[in-house]
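Annex B. Sample input.
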Amino acid sequence: MLESAKVPALNDMVMDRYGDYRCIFDADRDQIPVFTALGQWVGLADSPDAITTLIDIHERVNGDDA
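Annex B, continued. Sample output.
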């Protein structure tokens, strides 16, 4: 008999959307990883206030469709 794979729980982690971008808030880390919805790495935001600045820079460098 096959047993289903165990899915790791995302304890103290929250994924949030910013339009076409995704951020992962982790209670154990100060920085917030930011990705595009397709999984492309954008960078680490030093605080929640810095997320939109990081996204703006990414869009200027890579275009709005990145």
